Amino acid sequence: MKVLKLPKSNREEFVLALTEFGEVHIPKAKGKESYIFDKMESPDEIAWEYLRTIAPPKKYMTPPRESLLRYNTAEGYREVNAEYEQRMILFGLHPCDIHGIRILDEVFSGEYNDTYYFQRRKDVIIIGLSCIPDDKCFCRSMGTDFVESGYDLFLSELHDSYLLAIGSGLGDQIVRKAEDYLRTPTESDRREYLEIRNRRREQFEVELDISDLPYILDLERESEVWDDIGAQCLVCGSCSMVCPTCYCFNVYDQQDLNGENGERLREWDACLYKNYTRVAGGETFRDTRADRVKNRYLHKQRHFVEEYGRPSCVGCGRCVDACPAGINVVEVFQRLRGVA
Ligand code: SF4
Ligand code: SF4
Fold it and tell me: Which residues on adjacent β-strands are paired with residue 99?
């Protein structure tokens, strides 16, 4: 892998050079303490020190609400083309979010290839950015605190510069175009990287032991912990909506009043909602809140592991931040393990 150096004094020019390759979307401040990914109007808006955005970057591949097809009684139906008009450059994604996209790539390319997802995904350029964890991050426990692939470029922050790793041919093209802003790393940059990287490993305050978690979850299926969490949960669905790896959706048709025109829509959904578990005939398989909360946890850390060989949680801490009932995913697993 080729690694270059971007001095901080050149970073705004570097980001401006990206606009030649597509529409640049960046982490921006939203209010005093929140961040969102949004279209860049100026490099001044980049929140270089942000930690997590409210919504994850999955919204660029699978939007909260999208039209799948449109129909009318005279002409039949036509599928909607989900392609972007130009490339989307997602700038500043942290390793956990890049892992989140890798997980979605795998899910949506499975038995039922999702063409809508991939029509957008093929035009998404990913430029990663390193970060320093807070008291909600547990990506180190999930093995997602570092990313070795799945990006076009990745910036690792040093004191006065960034190391810039090139992860794809497109990343290489960008670097060639922006070569005036880049330098060759020195021995002291490499030492600085190691020092910062090793210090970062020590900064994680939260740890989740996932070694035999699927087994523990099988053993504790009837634990009273689920009843406690079910009683606390407000079933708002926020934890699913903000999760970079939750991918459940609902599909329904919306027709105009004369019945001639309509469209088929897909919307983010959540297994926490009772309606999600309702099937034809009105039967609901996960009737209680406790059952639905348990299902979400089991899916992330047990069933997904069985199917894909890894959990579908990247330890981003968004659900901890978003939960109005104060439910903390790490504490739930620790309680089930009997260590909290
Ligand atoms: S379950 Fe929570 S911590 Fe894990 S990836 Fe989803 S939002 Fe992030
Ligand atoms: S965010 Fe909290 S209260 Fe809302 S559904 Fe998730 S666990 Fe329940």
Answer: none
